[in-house]
Structure formats: structure tokens, C-alpha cells
Amino acid sequence: MRYKTHIVSSLTAGAGLSIMLNYPFHIGYVIGICFGSLLPDIDEPRSFIGRRSFGLSKYVKQRYGHRGITHSLFAWMLVSFVFLIYPSFLTIGISLGYLFHLIGDLFSIRSIPILAPFKPVRPTLPFTYKTGSFTEDILLYIFTFLLFYFVFVYGKLYPYLIQSTVELVSSIIHILMDYLKTISN
Ligand SMILES: [Zn+2]
């Protein structure tokens, strides 16, 4: 999957979970899902996140290869550990986004080494798509439609999303103002 499809499909799954579990669709949760859904591709220097990783992705690719260890449940558990230590909207979002990325790639023809580093299996699922293909374009359209439907129509998630965004922006402004005050004194 390309990065756009990862972000949109993960947000759609996150919105679906929010509706099902009555979990707040907080801006921190949304940002976490976006970031988490890009994170596994840190093993590819040409990926969206790899190009912004200050050389880290080159190192990871050399050591583990693309779609290696970062695309396993083991890596997901390591990332989710952060959520266990610092539970927050952001960290649960990162954990979920990461997991949704793995599920997205699991359905691709190339699949992922889901049980690395313990077993080198790459399960092939009955429904697959080729990364960057027309099928993936169609999937992107379907997920985009579903996301808007979940957020604005079916789940009505947007009022809380807007409210939490306003709160976040105003607290950032407050912190900046306080900071400017301290340095000007
Ligand atoms: Zn990937």
C-alpha cells in the first residue's frame, strides 16, 4: 500500500472502532493513527516516512530489509509497549495505526513476515491486491468515502474532533505565550 492508502484505511478503521466501542474520536487519537500507519515503512528510504527519517530508514533497510521485522506482530508489540507505559489518545492511536498498516500490507500480494523474527512465513490471503495498482486506487476511493461517512454521517464523530482540535491548538498557543513571556523577562 502507498502511504495515502495506509493513512486513509487506518483512519477509517479507527473511526469504525470509535463508533463500535464508543471511544472518543480525539485529535490526538487521529494524529496517532496517521503517524502509526506510516511508521512500519521506516524500513524503506523511498517511503513517505523514510524520506523524512534523517537516514534512520537506510540503516533499518540495510539491517532488516524492506517489509522485514518492522512488518511483524513482534514490532507491533514493541510499539504498543509505549502505550502501556504512557496511556493516551496519541499512544493508543499509534499502536492501532501500526496494526492497521500491518493488516493492509498482509492483504497485498507480497504479504508480510507476520511472525518474524520467529518464523519466516508470509501468509497469502484469499483476497489480495498489488501495491500501486488500479485495485489499490479503488480501495483508496472506498476507504475515503467510508471515512467521511463514519465521521460526518453515521457516527457523527466530527463535533468532538473539532472541539478537541480547538483545545489542542489553544493549549499550544498558551504554552508558546508562556514561553515568550519567560524569554522576554
Ligand atoms: Zn508497509
UniProtKB/TrEMBL annotation:
The chain crosses the membrane at residues 73-92, 138-155. Pfam families: YdjM. The keyword Membrane applies. This is Metal-dependent hydrolase. Keywords: Hydrolase, Membrane, Transmembrane, Transmembrane helix. It comes from the Bacteria. GO terms for molecular function: hydrolase activity.
